[in-house]
Amino acid sequence: MTRDITPAGPPATGAVDEAFAEVRASFDRFCLAAGIEALGTMMEADVTAACGPRHGRDAARRAHRWGRTRGRIGFHGGKIEVDRPRVRGVDGREVTIPSWETAAQEDWLGRWAMNLMLINVSTRRFGRAVRLPEGDVPAPPGSGVSKSAASRRFVALSAARLADFMAADLSALDLLVVQIDGLHLGDDLVLVAAIGVDGEGNKHPLALVEGATENAATVQALLDNLVSRGLDPTVPRLFIADGAKALSKAIRRTFGSAAAIQRCQIHKARNIMERLPKEHHAATRRVLRQAWELDDADKAEKLIRNLARRLDQQWPGVAASILEGLDEILTVVRLKLPKELRRSLACTNIAENMMGTIRRVTRNVKRWRDAGMALRWVAAGMIEANKGFRRLKAHKQLSVLRAALQAHLDRMTIKPIAHVSRAA
Predict the structure, then answer these.
(1) What are the Cα distances from residue 288, in Å, to 154, 291, 323, 337?
(2) Helix (H, G, I), strand (E, B), or coil: what is residue 257?
(3) In whole angstroms, what is the distance from residue 394 CA to residue 218 CA?
(4) What confidence tier does 2 reach under pLDDT thresholds 50, 70, 90?
(5) What is the pLDDT of residue 82?
(6) Residue 378 DSSP SS3
(7) pLDDT tens, 103-112?
(8) Cα atoms in the 13 Å half-sphere on the side-chain side of 377
(9) Using CB atoms within 10 A of its CB, is residue 268 exposed (0-12), middle (13-18) or buried (19+)?
(10) Is pLDDT at 247 greater than 80 in this prediction?
């Protein structure tokens, strides 16, 4: 007869039974109990390293045990109280316990608050988002899940991220395209944001300032910030702007008179349509689209001038608006870029896409107290938008843009060579 010679396992201890009982009752409480036990083991190891074994007589010890106290650490987006040991050195001063310091300094609370507010969870519902009202881990006063506590953590973390964002080094980025556009947050609150595209087609949020694109000082402050952080003004780039004259002037002042500026065709068409009667919209839009699709810049310019001439009799103001900044509207055509690349770079759609994410992130803000608050929120939205950015659709054709920008720079900066007269 075959006998089972496998020895029987040891009987379950009371601690194991208690742990399984915790799992059956509440998984949250089991995880909490397991985490506290693991932290207690690490703290006891740190205390032993500093004080020697309990009840031992170690002459080389650096400190001695000094009872226990209650402290708070982060858990589930809030705080819980935990018993921790105290240690004092031979000089009588408190000695820090490394494992406890690490657990207490872990900024899970700030990251919880930041993440939930970016996905439109209001501060009033923060506690409910991280702790179930009927759950087994309570949220007593001081647990850090109140609306004011969540708001304070968001303000602190968003301010730190804004500072890092506005000081990030740009010298390592091979930026070929810089888009600048304005964002209206209220009747009297406007911000200007810049976003860049590198040689691989990757998109990078660059900078943010308060003010409008029509304000020369605001735009100049934005460009000065980019240059001070490592954006080389001598490298040829394509600048895409919403059409403000102050913006074009500041770009040429900072990056040279030969800077290639493309005025957003969507903004231009929208401004024209707002000034025309509805019956003229279809025909005007058709002519503009036909001109922008042409591969010959001279033919496109002639088509737009003919449109302005037809409208000049009845709508002279609109005709003047069509001709204003005509060269900048056709920059991507004059650079002879492929059609797919022209469609991506003829407007500020990349910036508009980012603005859509910013509007979603700031949807719960009911009142903008000041520009500092707006800068923090919008910078957080730009960083959030960066997580979902995809490469430029026509990124494989960016080498054509690089060559075209260099040729444009060479053509605009070439100087005639003076003839040297021979001596008689």
Answers:
(1) 46, 5, 12, 18
(2) coil
(3) 32
(4) very low
(5) 83
(6) helix
(7) 777 565 567 7
(8) 26
(9) buried
(10) yes
Which two tokens mark 157? 């973390």
Mean pLDDT of 343-347: 91
Return the HEC string of 107-172.
CHHHHHHHHHHHCCCCHHHHHHHHCCCCCCCCCCCCCCCCHHHHHHHHHHHHHHHHHHHHHCCCCC
Contact 175, 236 (CB under 8 A): no
> Which residue type is seen at 273?
M
Mean pLDDT score across all residues of the chain: 83
DSSP for 304-331, written as a single string: HHHHHHHHTTT-HHHHHHHHTTHHHHTH
CA dihedral 299, 300, 306, 309 (to 10 degrees): -130
Nearest in space to 386 (alpha carbons), one of 198, 257, 176: 198
Percent of the chain with pLDDT over 70: 84
- DSSP for 176-238, written as a single string: EEEEEEEEE-SSS-EEEEEEEEETTS-EEEEEEEES-TT-HHHHHHHHHHHHHTT--TTS--E
- Residue the block writes with tokens 């500041």: 250
pTM: 0.76
Structure tokens at 264: 């957003």
Give the pair of three-digit tokens for residue 25. 């009752």
Q: In what order do the strands lie in the sheet with 238-241?
A: 203-210, 190-198, 175-184, 238-241, 260-263
For residues 54 and 141, which has the higher predicted lDDT (pLDDT)?
54
Give the Cβ contact number of residue 311 at 10 Å: 22
> Higher model confidence: residue 9 or residue 137?
137
CA distance 257 to 351: 24
Structure tokens at 393: 């659709």
Token pair, residue 196, equals 């860049």
Residue pLDDT, tens place only, 139-183: 666 666 777 877 887 888 889 889 999 999 999 999 999 999 988
Measured in residues, the chain has a length of 424
Render pLDDT for 63-75 as a digit per residue (tens, 0 to 9).
888 889 888 877 6
Taking 50 as the threshold, does the pLDDT of residue 3 lie above it? no
Contact 128, 74 (CB under 8 A): no
Q: What is the dihedral sign for C-alpha 115, 118, 119, 122?
A: positive
Q: What SS3 state is found at 246?
A: helix
Distance between CA 104 and CA 53 in Å, rounded?
Answer: 25
